[in-house]
Amino acid sequence: MITDKEILVLYYSQHGATRQMAQLIARGIEQVAGVRARLRTVPKISTVCESTEPGIPDSGAPYVELNDLNECIGLALGSPTRFGNMAAPLKYFWDGTGGLWMQHALAGKPAAVFTSSSSMHGGQETTLLSMMLPLLHHGMVIIGIPYSEPELSLTQSGGTPYGASHVAGLASDTPISEAEKKLCIALGKRLAHTALKLVQ
Protein backbone atom coordinates (compact mmCIF):
# COMPACT_ATOMS: atom_id res chain seq x y z
CA MET A 1 0.00 0.00 0.00
CA ILE A 2 1.46 3.37 -1.09
CA THR A 3 1.03 6.16 1.46
CA ASP A 4 0.69 9.76 0.29
CA LYS A 5 3.55 12.07 1.22
CA GLU A 6 2.63 14.97 3.49
CA ILE A 7 3.22 18.71 3.45
CA LEU A 8 3.05 20.57 6.74
CA VAL A 9 0.73 23.58 6.82
CA LEU A 10 1.80 25.37 9.99
CA TYR A 11 0.07 28.55 11.12
CA TYR A 12 -0.88 30.80 13.99
CA SER A 13 -4.30 32.46 13.88
CA GLN A 14 -5.93 34.74 16.44
CA HIS A 15 -9.16 35.74 14.69
CA GLY A 16 -9.51 32.91 12.17
CA ALA A 17 -8.44 34.44 8.85
CA THR A 18 -4.99 32.82 8.79
CA ARG A 19 -6.59 29.49 9.72
CA GLN A 20 -9.00 29.81 6.76
CA MET A 21 -6.06 30.57 4.47
CA ALA A 22 -4.26 27.48 5.81
CA GLN A 23 -7.31 25.38 4.95
CA LEU A 24 -7.39 26.79 1.41
CA ILE A 25 -3.69 26.11 0.92
CA ALA A 26 -4.28 22.57 2.23
CA ARG A 27 -7.05 22.20 -0.36
CA GLY A 28 -4.61 23.19 -3.09
CA ILE A 29 -2.02 20.73 -1.80
CA GLU A 30 -4.54 17.90 -1.84
CA GLN A 31 -5.50 18.62 -5.46
CA VAL A 32 -2.11 17.14 -6.37
CA ALA A 33 -2.06 13.34 -6.56
CA GLY A 34 0.16 11.61 -4.02
CA VAL A 35 0.26 14.44 -1.49
CA ARG A 36 -1.72 15.22 1.66
CA ALA A 37 -1.70 18.29 3.91
CA ARG A 38 -0.89 18.02 7.61
CA LEU A 39 -2.44 21.04 9.41
CA ARG A 40 -0.76 22.19 12.62
CA THR A 41 -0.77 25.30 14.80
CA VAL A 42 1.19 26.75 17.72
CA PRO A 43 -0.07 27.75 21.19
CA LYS A 44 -0.29 31.33 22.40
CA ILE A 45 2.56 32.59 24.54
CA SER A 46 2.31 34.77 27.62
CA THR A 47 4.62 36.99 29.67
CA VAL A 48 2.96 35.55 32.78
CA CYS A 49 5.11 32.63 33.98
CA GLU A 50 2.15 30.76 35.47
CA SER A 51 0.05 31.05 32.31
CA THR A 52 -0.24 27.81 30.36
CA GLU A 53 -2.11 26.54 27.34
CA PRO A 54 -3.79 23.12 27.28
CA GLY A 55 -1.70 20.33 25.74
CA ILE A 56 -4.34 19.90 23.05
CA PRO A 57 -6.21 22.86 21.49
CA ASP A 58 -9.93 23.15 22.20
CA SER A 59 -10.62 23.22 18.46
CA GLY A 60 -8.82 23.30 15.13
CA ALA A 61 -5.48 21.78 14.23
CA PRO A 62 -3.23 20.03 16.79
CA TYR A 63 -0.11 21.76 18.05
CA VAL A 64 2.99 21.25 15.95
CA GLU A 65 5.86 19.03 17.06
CA LEU A 66 9.40 19.11 15.71
CA ASN A 67 8.81 15.67 14.24
CA ASP A 68 6.15 17.17 11.93
CA LEU A 69 8.93 19.13 10.21
CA ASN A 70 11.04 16.00 9.92
CA GLU A 71 8.30 13.84 8.47
CA CYS A 72 6.88 16.24 5.88
CA ILE A 73 8.37 16.89 2.44
CA GLY A 74 7.48 20.59 2.40
CA LEU A 75 6.10 23.45 4.49
CA ALA A 76 3.53 26.22 4.17
CA LEU A 77 3.99 28.72 7.01
CA GLY A 78 1.32 31.27 7.91
CA SER A 79 1.01 34.12 10.40
CA PRO A 80 -1.04 37.27 10.89
CA THR A 81 0.99 40.47 10.60
CA ARG A 82 2.31 41.98 13.82
CA PHE A 83 3.79 45.38 12.96
CA GLY A 84 5.19 43.97 9.73
CA ASN A 85 6.53 40.83 11.35
CA MET A 86 5.38 37.30 12.14
CA ALA A 87 3.40 36.77 15.34
CA ALA A 88 5.38 36.01 18.52
CA PRO A 89 3.99 32.47 19.03
CA LEU A 90 5.27 31.42 15.61
CA LYS A 91 8.66 33.11 16.16
CA TYR A 92 8.90 31.39 19.55
CA PHE A 93 8.40 28.01 17.88
CA TRP A 94 11.11 28.67 15.26
CA ASP A 95 13.52 29.81 17.96
CA GLY A 96 13.31 26.25 19.32
CA THR A 97 14.30 24.49 16.09
CA GLY A 98 18.06 24.73 16.56
CA GLY A 99 18.38 20.96 16.87
CA LEU A 100 16.85 20.49 13.42
CA TRP A 101 19.16 23.17 12.07
CA MET A 102 22.19 21.33 13.46
CA GLN A 103 21.01 18.16 11.68
CA HIS A 104 20.24 19.99 8.38
CA ALA A 105 16.84 18.28 8.62
CA LEU A 106 14.98 20.85 6.50
CA ALA A 107 17.71 21.60 3.96
CA GLY A 108 16.41 21.20 0.41
CA LYS A 109 12.73 21.02 1.33
CA PRO A 110 10.42 23.59 -0.32
CA ALA A 111 8.54 26.18 1.72
CA ALA A 112 5.90 28.83 1.07
CA VAL A 113 4.53 31.58 3.30
CA PHE A 114 1.17 33.30 3.79
CA THR A 115 -0.26 36.09 5.95
CA SER A 116 -3.29 38.17 6.85
CA SER A 117 -3.38 41.83 7.90
CA SER A 118 -6.08 44.24 9.00
CA SER A 119 -5.27 46.84 6.32
CA MET A 120 -4.10 46.84 2.73
CA HIS A 121 -0.73 48.36 3.63
CA GLY A 122 -0.42 46.68 7.01
CA GLY A 123 2.96 45.04 6.45
CA GLN A 124 1.96 41.95 4.50
CA GLU A 125 5.11 41.74 2.39
CA THR A 126 7.51 42.40 5.28
CA THR A 127 5.69 39.74 7.33
CA LEU A 128 6.12 37.26 4.49
CA LEU A 129 9.81 38.15 4.26
CA SER A 130 10.23 37.82 8.04
CA MET A 131 8.84 34.29 7.88
CA MET A 132 11.28 33.41 5.10
CA LEU A 133 14.34 34.27 7.23
CA PRO A 134 14.40 31.22 9.53
CA LEU A 135 13.44 29.01 6.58
CA LEU A 136 16.44 30.25 4.60
CA HIS A 137 18.71 29.61 7.60
CA HIS A 138 17.35 26.05 7.63
CA GLY A 139 18.30 25.69 3.95
CA MET A 140 14.73 25.47 2.67
CA VAL A 141 13.84 26.31 -0.94
CA ILE A 142 11.45 29.27 -0.95
CA ILE A 143 8.69 29.38 -3.54
CA GLY A 144 6.25 32.20 -4.21
CA ILE A 145 3.37 32.92 -6.55
CA PRO A 146 4.29 33.65 -10.18
CA TYR A 147 2.50 36.25 -12.29
CA SER A 148 1.28 33.41 -14.49
CA GLU A 149 -1.52 33.26 -11.89
CA PRO A 150 -3.89 35.89 -13.33
CA GLU A 151 -5.37 36.83 -9.94
CA LEU A 152 -2.01 38.22 -8.87
CA SER A 153 -2.36 41.03 -11.42
CA LEU A 154 -6.11 41.51 -10.95
CA THR A 155 -6.54 41.40 -7.16
CA GLN A 156 -7.91 44.49 -5.40
CA SER A 157 -7.36 42.84 -2.02
CA GLY A 158 -4.50 40.56 -0.92
CA GLY A 159 -1.99 38.64 -2.99
CA THR A 160 1.75 39.07 -3.51
CA PRO A 161 4.50 37.30 -5.45
CA TYR A 162 6.13 36.53 -2.07
CA GLY A 163 3.18 34.42 -0.91
CA ALA A 164 -0.56 34.41 -0.36
CA SER A 165 -2.10 37.24 1.66
CA HIS A 166 -5.48 38.49 2.84
CA VAL A 167 -6.83 41.87 3.93
CA ALA A 168 -9.05 41.05 6.93
CA GLY A 169 -10.26 44.57 7.77
CA LEU A 170 -9.89 46.53 10.99
CA ALA A 171 -12.45 44.31 12.73
CA SER A 172 -10.92 41.15 11.22
CA ASP A 173 -14.27 40.29 9.67
CA THR A 174 -13.71 40.82 5.93
CA PRO A 175 -14.28 37.53 4.09
CA ILE A 176 -11.48 36.10 1.99
CA SER A 177 -12.00 37.39 -1.55
CA GLU A 178 -12.28 35.13 -4.58
CA ALA A 179 -8.87 36.28 -5.82
CA GLU A 180 -7.31 35.61 -2.42
CA LYS A 181 -8.88 32.13 -2.32
CA LYS A 182 -7.58 31.26 -5.78
CA LEU A 183 -4.08 32.45 -4.89
CA CYS A 184 -4.07 30.36 -1.68
CA ILE A 185 -5.10 27.26 -3.61
CA ALA A 186 -2.59 28.00 -6.37
CA LEU A 187 0.20 28.37 -3.80
CA GLY A 188 -0.73 25.03 -2.22
CA LYS A 189 -0.68 23.30 -5.61
CA ARG A 190 2.65 24.86 -6.58
CA LEU A 191 4.18 23.84 -3.25
CA ALA A 192 2.94 20.26 -3.66
CA HIS A 193 4.21 19.95 -7.25
CA THR A 194 7.61 21.36 -6.22
CA ALA A 195 7.88 19.08 -3.19
CA LEU A 196 7.19 15.99 -5.28
CA LYS A 197 9.88 16.98 -7.79
CA LEU A 198 12.46 17.66 -5.07
CA VAL A 199 11.78 14.48 -3.11
CA GLN A 200 12.41 12.16 -6.08
Task: Offer a few descriptive terms.
36% helix, Rossmann fold, 200 residues, six-stranded parallel β-sheet, alpha/beta, 7 helices, 6 strands
Characterization of this structure:
By secondary structure, the protein is of the alpha/beta class. It has one domain: Flavodoxin domain (Rossmann fold, 3-Layer(aba) Sandwich). The chain is 36% helix and 17% strand. It has seven helices and six strands, in the order E-H-E-H-E-H-H-E-H-E-H-E-H. Strand 1, helix 1 and strand 2 form a beta-alpha-beta unit.
Beta-strand percentage range: 15-25%
- Give me the strand/helix succession: EHEHEHHEHEHEH
Distance between the termini: 18 Å
Q: Helix amount, in percent?
A: 25-40%
At CATH level 2, the architecture is: 3-Layer(aba) Sandwich
In terms of per-residue confidence, which ranges show pLDDT below 50 for 5 or more consecutive residues?
Answer: none
CATH topology: Rossmann fold
